Amino acid sequence: MISFLILIAGLALLLFAGDYLVRGAVSLAEKLGISPLVIGLTIVAFGTSAPELLVSLKAAFTGVYGIAIGNVVGSNIANVLLVLGAPALIAPIACKEKGIGFSLFIMALLTVVLMTMMGSGILDHVDGLILLLILIFFLSWQFIRARRDRVTAALGGDYHDELDELPAENSRIAAYLLFGLIGLPVGASLTVNGAVDIARVFGVSETIIGLTIVAIGTSLPELVTTVMAAWRGSGAVAIGNVVGSNIFNMAAILGITSLVHPLYVPSHIVHIDMWIMAITSALLILWSLLGKSITRVHGVVMLALFVTYVVAVF
């Protein structure tokens, strides 16, 4: 029970600290006159991935590679089946977001590259560098396209819709930043320690905990965002959010983590879970290419598949 409470406290602290860090950083950037485009491509994008990054880094340095990698693989699976399936119960999710084609290509490329890397059993410094180079290429293309087309809404201009309240006073901005910078590493430590303790108590591997409990917990920000967007009738942006999140999970989180510390890939992920991640990514790409909406019936099926996956993993 104590381990569960520690894990829940860690996940809650990660969510709140990451949110406050993004709000404080965005407010500071606006005060310094940084453009919305740059804010969207850097601060918001990386800030919302901070919980997963801190968890993976903490897990890597403590030798719990199942959580470090399972967190990302499980999050990508949850992003498609759970994060898109749940809001579809509220309203159909349109899959026709403008300019999504290149992002889908990068997600597919990263999935293939990452699976090839994980097949060797280890993600080393060279692998991390390659993943980060792909991310830099992707962000550069987004920046050039936005400057050319002046499409800033989809790449950073809409962050105010996701951040309901931004601090205005310097003291509040400093407090938000301080809470985020302190809360994230503390939350990551609590999350990893709690997850490891639960795994030991119940006799399951850290990989299973990383693929399920930790992955779902760190996917909560995306889930809340898409559910609220569907509730407000703006479900069309959900596909873009999920594709972007999956790209950052693979390229930024595993890229940075493996560049800092080599990651040994558990055989369970190599033989089963990374293939499920690939299948869910392929389904997302197919949906987007066909331009079909994700209906309530699809949502029910997706949630049922996700529950089945979690049960099967355990």
From TrEMBL:
Gene3D superfamilies: NCX, central ion-binding region, NCX, peripheral helical region. Its main location: membrane. GO terms for biological process: intracellular calcium ion homeostasis. The keyword Oxidoreductase does not apply. InterPro entries: K/Na/Ca-exchanger, NaCa_Exmemb, NCX_ion-bd_dom_sf. It comes from the Bacteria. One of its GO terms (cellular component) is plasma membrane. The chain crosses the membrane at residues 34-55, 67-94, 100-119, 126-144, 173-196, 208-231, 237-260, 272-290, 296-313. Residues 3-143, 174-313 form the Sodium/calcium exchanger membrane region domain. GO terms for molecular function: calcium channel activity; calcium, potassium:sodium antiporter activity. This is Calcium/sodium antiporter. It comes from Hoeflea prorocentri. PANTHER family: INNER MEMBRANE PROTEIN YRBG (PTHR10846:SF8), SODIUM/POTASSIUM/CALCIUM EXCHANGER (PTHR10846). It is a multi-pass membrane protein. The keyword Transcription does not apply. It is found in: Membrane.
